[in-house]
Amino acid sequence: MSPNRQSATLHRSLPELPSLPRPLYGRTESLTNRALTFRHTHPWVQLSYAIAGVLEVQTAGARFVAPPQRAVWVPAGVEHQVFSSPRTEMRSLYIDGSAVPWGPDACRVLAVSPLLRELIRGFSALPAEYDEQGAPGRLAAVLLDELRAAPDVALMLPLPQDARLREVCQGLEDATLRQLGLGEWGERLGVSEKTLSRLFLRETGLSFRVWRQRQRLLDALTPLEQGERVTDVALACGYDSLSAFIAAFRRQFGATPGEFFRE
């Protein structure tokens, strides 16, 4: 999934939720097609998680990608869109800010341990107005404890604001332009390679080479999660060899594609 694919998506409306029935509220949703919500905000924290499929949360400044081993933390008031791969099984948690005073104030991708996954699944099956003083309330408390302990992981791609860099980033989603180097992009845009390189580092904190590699690897998560052959995914993402793709994937995610999706 990429930030330049609205034409391939369907708009879906957001559920009416004027207030939270409990400080921690879970919502279950099956998405049979790739979906896109309009840019919106919530007055509460949202944890976007998918037990199947790949979710992406996009803000004005970054993409946050979450396969089933990850979830995206969205603070209250942050404008965002949510994308998903086909047949996604989504479990959203909406959390009153007073219940998570320790929560980060910016979007994060969090690792979801097997225990946290099962807690989210179990909690999502509870009625909206569960008994806060009984076992459901204790389950909610344990879930929040595990969520607090969940580590951040690097599944974020910063998006530049400069119009020239935006054009480069969008062009990298085109298979016919994917292999262009920064010098070639400079010629197209009438800007020196040195200037583009300096702008990339200033606006994203990453070099062009590192940014492009991370983009390719994040885009590979959806087809890999859906069972496509690793070789086909590697070639589609612009890698010349399977071994180069697997080595890059291992450096980024700490595991080979096969190991990562067996977790």
TrEMBL record:
Cell cycle among keywords: no
Boundaries of every HTH araC/xylS-type domain copy: 166-263
Biased amino acid composition, Polar residues: 1-10
Alphabetized UniProt keyword annotations: Activator, DNA-binding, Transcription, Transcription regulation
InterPro entries according to UniProt: AraC-bd, Homeodomain-like_sf, HTH_AraC, HTH_AraC-typ_CS, RmlC-like_jellyroll, RmlC_Cupin_sf, Tscrpt_reg_AraC-type_HTH
Coiled coil: none
Name of the protein in its database record: AraC family transcriptional regulator
